């Protein structure tokens, strides 16, 4: 048996966009992933389906797995020959006990690698507009733990810290905040020294509070500051108001679930992130080309496509059979909507008809009169919406339906507990979501069109929002109407 290997991977401070490329690459090839409580939901959701997932963080009141136990798990999995990823919040070596794990691995001669991560000590303040250094204000930064190994308050030399004049960053300090402020004041720092705390930095739930060494304790109590938080002491702590940027983005503070299939989610997720949302990709369906031979393509006056996946699968099958798109001869091309039309154009096929409303019924109603006297070939998904064929039939169209691919449900790696909304781009994503999570587990369903919304209503989502037009931008607009 080949020996396994362990990668200590920094997952970053929360936002999935702050996981490194190397971290993601390593995760994708892992056989087992051992993860902590502070790893962001968006990162957890990236864990590949094939990997064994071991949660060693605190969950539902249970205590976290003790450090020695975690080390035993890493060693045991690696000795089984597995590729093991040890996924930790922030950077593995910043109060992450990465060194202890390496010591345990070395004892057993297990190969290891460290993938650095973006540490919350710097990223949480910066996401809240606090630069940890600033010309003229702070020439050094110091990262300090407020807790000892045994869980008590750290025995810190506050007098030394007070003399440094740099930015002080306390981790694990949310509950020790009063002691920290008092000790620094007692050690000689001015009570007017700016101080701030950033809770759950880089996530949708990020909060910043600010004051001075004299006032922050009271402010934190009133705001009910909770862990995880970084406490910032020093002149830069006053800059947040001036430099903050995140809260001005239109979707800041929203945690959203994207349910599109793997490999199709990117564009929607990127648009949402650009508007400030925290995005968790939970692919609820996947599509697979059917093992079929394409029918003869000549003799039709119209060929219709109902999704970009359909277009891609069509070309995939065509290539596999060594056939040529010119077989379609003079047939005109219809597409259900914008994305489908774009997929066709990208492959050099001009689109002759796209309905005003992007759904099956509208495609059928618009196409039937155009194709009168000729034959239509509809290339689509197996078990697609029956509305399309019902309307074609009702309009007396002469059509053939051919299934290119099928949709199957997926089980996403993780479900975020506190998401604000899920976005659905088809009725099948709604069904996949409900199948994966056992019900309408988020309050709001944002749906790309009427059929999708009807499916969401059938499954009992509390609030359903429907895009005015079946486009991603229009879908995103349904989220921007909130008065939050
Ligand atoms: N290795 C981690 C730190 C682990 S210690 C890193 O490099 O970030 C755990 C502490 O990190 C928490 O108590 C808190 O102080 C801080 N922390 C982690 N994630 C945070 C976040 N998103 N926002 C604010 N503080 C965070």
Defining traits:
31% helix, elongated, 484 residues, Methyltransferase, Cobalt-precorrin-4 Transmethylase, Domain 2, Rossmann fold, alpha/beta, single chain, binds S-adenosyl-L-homocysteine, 4 domains, Cobalt-precorrin-4 Transmethylase, domain 1, 17 helices, 5-stranded parallel beta sheet
Q: Could you list the spans in which at least 5 consecutive residues all have pLDDT below 50?
A: none
Number of domains: 4
If classified by CATH, what would the architecture of the largest domain be? 2-Layer Sandwich
Average pLDDT reading:
93
Describe the structure.
The protein has 484 residues and is of the alpha/beta class. It has four domains: 5-118, 3-Layer(aba) Sandwich (Cobalt-precorrin-4 Transmethylase, domain 1); 122-246, Tetrapyrrole methylase, C-terminal domain (Methyltransferase, Cobalt-precorrin-4 Transmethylase, Domain 2), CATH 3.30.950; 255-284 and 410-477, Rossmann fold (3-Layer(aba) Sandwich), CATH 3.40.50; 290-407, Rossmann fold, CATH 3.40.50.10090. It is 31% helix and 21% strand. The chain is built from 17 helices and 20 strands. The chain has a five-stranded parallel beta sheet with strand order 3-2-4-1-5, sandwiched between helices. A five-stranded mixed beta sheet has the order 6-7-10-8-9, with helices on both faces. It is elongated. The model has no long low-confidence stretch (mean pLDDT 93). The protein binds S-adenosyl-L-homocysteine. S-adenosyl-L-homocysteine (SAH) is lined by residues 13-14, 38, 88-91, 94-96, 119-121, 124, 171-172, 198, 200-203, 227-230.
């Amino acid at each position: 048996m080949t020996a396994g290997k362990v990668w200590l991977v920094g997952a970053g401070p929360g936002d999935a966009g702050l996981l490194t490329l190397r971290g993601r690459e390593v995760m994708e090839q892992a056989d087992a992933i051992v993860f902590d409580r502070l790893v962001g939901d968006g990162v957890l959701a990236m864990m590949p389906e094939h990997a064994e997932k071991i949660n060693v963080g605190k969950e539902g009141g249970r205590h976290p797995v003790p450090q020695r136990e975690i080390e035993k798990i890493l060693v045991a999995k690696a000795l089984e020959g597995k590729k093991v990823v040890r996924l930790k919040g922030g950077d593995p070596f910043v109060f992450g006990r990465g060194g202890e794990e390496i010591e345990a691995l070395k004892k057993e001669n297990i190969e290891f690698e460290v993938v650095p991560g973006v540490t919350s000590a710097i990223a949480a303040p910066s996401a809240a507009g606090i630069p940890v250094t600033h010309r003229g204000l702070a020439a050094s930064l110091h990262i300090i733990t407020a807790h000892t190994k045994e869980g008590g308050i750290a025995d810190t030399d506050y007098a030394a810290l007070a003399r440094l004049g740099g930015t002080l960053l306390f981790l694990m300090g949310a509950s020790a905040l009063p002691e920290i402020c008092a000790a620094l004041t007692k050690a000689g720092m001015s009570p007017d020294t700016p101080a701030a705390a950033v809770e759950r930095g880089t996530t949708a739930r990020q909060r910043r509070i600010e004051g001075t060494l004299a006032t922050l304790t009271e402010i934190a109590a009133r705001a009910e500051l909770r862990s995880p938080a970084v406490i910032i002491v020093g002149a830069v702590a006053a800059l947040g108001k001036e430099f903050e940027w995140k809260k001005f983005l239109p979707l800041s503070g929203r945690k959203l679930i994207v349910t599109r299939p793997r490999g199709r989610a990117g564009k929607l997720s990127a648009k949402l992130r650009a508007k400030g949302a925290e995005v968790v990709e939970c692919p609820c369906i996947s599509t697979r080309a059917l093992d079929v031979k394409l029918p003869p393509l000549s003799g039709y006056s119209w060929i219709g496509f109902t999704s970009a996946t359909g277009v891609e699968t069509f070309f995939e099958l065509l290539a596999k059979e060594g056939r040529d798109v010119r077989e379609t001869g003079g047939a005109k091309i219809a597409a259900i909507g914008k994305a489908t039309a774009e997929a066709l154009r990208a492959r050099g096929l001009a689109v002759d008809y796209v309905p005003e409303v992007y759904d099956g019924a509208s495609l059928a109603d618009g196409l039937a009169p155009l194709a009168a006297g000729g034959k239509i070939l509809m290339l689509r998904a197996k078990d697609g919406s029956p509305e399309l064929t019902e309307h074609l039939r009702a309009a007396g169209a002469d059509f053939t339906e051919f299934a290119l691919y099928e949709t199957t449900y997926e089980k996403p790696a993780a479900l975020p507990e506190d998401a604000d909304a899920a976005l659905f781009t088809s009725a099948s994503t709604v069904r996949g979501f409900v199948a994966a999570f056992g019900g309408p587990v988020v309050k709001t369903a944002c749906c790309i069109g009427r059929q999708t919304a009807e499916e969401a209503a059938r499954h009992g989502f509390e609030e359903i929002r429907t895009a005015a037009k079946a486009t991603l931008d229009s879908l995103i607009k349904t989220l921007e109407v909130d008065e939050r």
